[in-house]
Amino acid sequence: MSEEKKPAIKKIQATGHMRKIMADYFYELDKAYKAGSPKIAWCTSVGPAELLLSLGFLVYYPENHGAMLGSTRTATDYIPAANAIGYSPDICSYLTSDIGAFIKKETPLSRAYEGIEGVPLPDVLVYNTNQCRDVQDWFSWYSRELKVPALGISTYRNIGTITTDHLASIEKQIKGLIPALEEISGNTFDIDKFRHILGLSYDCTQLWKKVLETNKAIPAPISFFDETIHMGPAVVLRGTDVAVEYYKVLLQELEERIAQKDGAVEGEQYRLYWEGMPIWGKLRNLAEFFISLKTAVIASTYCNSWIFDSFDPKDPFMSMARAYTEIFIVRDENFKEQYIENMVNMYKLNGLLFHDAKTCPNNSNNRYGMPERLSERLGIPALTINGDLNDLRCYSEEQAQTNIEAFVEQLESR
Ligand code: SF4
Hints:
The chain is an alpha/beta fold. It is 52% helix and 10% strand.
């Protein structure tokens, strides 16, 4: 597609606001790292961030850094450095690109934010294996390298019904982190502070949910590709007033768009689901390509993963255990299929896209026949796009575009 023919992605006015709060977040971390206070915790994206915040840590998320490496298309510069120390090209490319960048002493943060020379190094690493085992291996590498403790929660996987036994175990593990975290932070755990932060996370998550659900409108006001950018505050700033205020602003803008019938895709004809990880380095290309096909990708498992309905400040430990266990990635095939069926009905979708991310089997749900089963059950077509979250050597743009075009023609013929 030549430059002049590229369809325009409609600008979201709140983007400037988001950039400012994300910049403030990284500068605050950088300042704390340089001053040695407050202490810094690295946390997995669906780890116990609220507990860490309540103990006075600033929280940094290596997966967010991984996504930056992907979206700046620098990940493939760094993956070989991690391969060279024994981390396979077949495992999580967030892990390999992040560790590779660390080995090469480079980060997109220093290009984006003047004065930041490196990532803010941790005083403690805290993971939850609810999403995958890779995060434990990832944090264990840093633990050995930087000689800081790695603490974790091991979550059951492939769960259908969540039982009280599951939750009791997770709750116990969350509580079990507190003595070590108190010692590292130098602060005493305060249940009221924990409740307050969990309440802010709940407010953030409810607003984020409302943002996503604006896409029930026809035409849909925001694309999946924009949502992956605008979920940044829900990932790294949940538990703060700043994130709550941001989503109020974004929500208002999207509601205005709905009132004006101003869709993200001009002349929207088809509405699709994106199952799996984003292809970070190709968000813009894919957004433009779908706009050119008058097809809106408007609902996804990925963006829904930061909706934590169960947070309850009245019962903080148990509700946190539930919220971080009931997410999609933890669940069995039956749950996942029912979940996607609900999404198809809620958003009035015409088809399903499955991203088979080469290095993330945990978020690639196409591999055991799910697209075929859902397609038959729901009477809508499904397409698998082969690619990866960060390793663009696994993605052929030409092949993906050919397949997507054929898929949209299939929708037309129906
Ligand atoms: S869920 Fe996938 S992308 Fe995320 S950390 Fe695990 S392997 Fe990497």
